[in-house]
Amino acid sequence: MTLVLAENIDISRGDLLADPADAPRPAKTVRARLCWLSSEPIDARALATTRLVLKHTTRSIRAKLLSLDHRIDVNSLESQPMPAGIAMNDIAQVSIALAQPIFADSYGSNRATGCFILIDETSNESVAAGMIDG
User: Fold this and answer.
1) At 108, phi and psi to the nearest 5?
2) What is the pLDDT of residues 30-68, one digit of tens each?
């Protein structure tokens, strides 16, 4: 199927085309499930000082972990509320604040706009992979 636009529009790398009837929502804060990939654990008390970049689609945006809401025990699948931190291969529910809004869907609705990676701003290491919750 070929679509023809009624008028010319200016689109650059990183811009998002969406159906206006089903457009993703802009968000400066997201709730997500993270898999922590770094060998360096993160302490819940150090969240505010950890400098991260969230890479979502083609955009990179400064981000800060606001909270570690709970951690999933991978052996029992039980939720452990308010963990003291997360370590390599831990899965956690988090809240993330962004310096600029992103246009995101929940991972269940659209995998392309519902996922991201977190990068340590100082070492440039990928520290986590995440899925945005609805």
Assistant:
1) -65, -30
2) 999 999 999 999 999 988 889 999 999 999 999 999 999
CA distance 18 to 104: 11
Based on the structure, what is the number of domains in the chain? Answer: 1
Determine, yes or no, domain membership for 39: yes
Residue 12 included in any domain: no
What is the token pair recorded at 87?
Answer: 């370590």
The amino acid that residue 56 corresponds to is H
Distance of CA 29 to the CA centre of its chain: 9
In a domain, 51, yes or no: yes
Domain housing 54: 27-132
Measure the CA–CA gap between 18 and 105, rounded to whole angstroms.
11
